[in-house]
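Moderator note: this is an archived Q&A kept for reference. The question asked for a predicted structure of one protein chain; the sequence and the answer are reproduced below.
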Amino acid sequence: MNGFLHDLRYAVRQFVKTPGVTLIVVITIALGVGANTALFSVVNGVLLNPLPYPQPERLVTLHERKPNFESGSISFPNFRDWRNDNHTFSAMAISRGSTFGLTGTGEALQLNGEFVTTDFFSILGVQPVLGRNFAPGEDEIGASPVALISEGPARRATRVDPMVALRYE
């Protein structure tokens, strides 16, 4: 222990003697620790922790590549053909991001959302807390639009508890 304290005092004297080198060493160590923390956070979130769905190892994502897009959205008619000709996957669903306007008793809200097929949530094993899931056929072309709204936007749009039955048309 005596040797360690001697070495520590010597290191502190050297750092005080050369503040420029000390600053470079501290910045280098801080960048290294920060980079390792960021990298571990990504690895932990993506590789080590499973997705919060039943049987996450069975979920895959499919994309369609087009000459003018690296990764484009799949058209609904193409998806229906894929689903009808599918002999590999137990189920298939599709989603596409969009923005939506939500109105209620409060001011109108601009929301980010997803167009999804009716079996999207059942494939993920997700059930709504209130109300119902999509019914078969509600994603067919020409069907009336149906929306599932999460608690936050429902609360902001209506200014009431979302556990109260809500209906948006």
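Archived answer notes: Strands lie at 64-66, 69-72, 95-102, 109-116.
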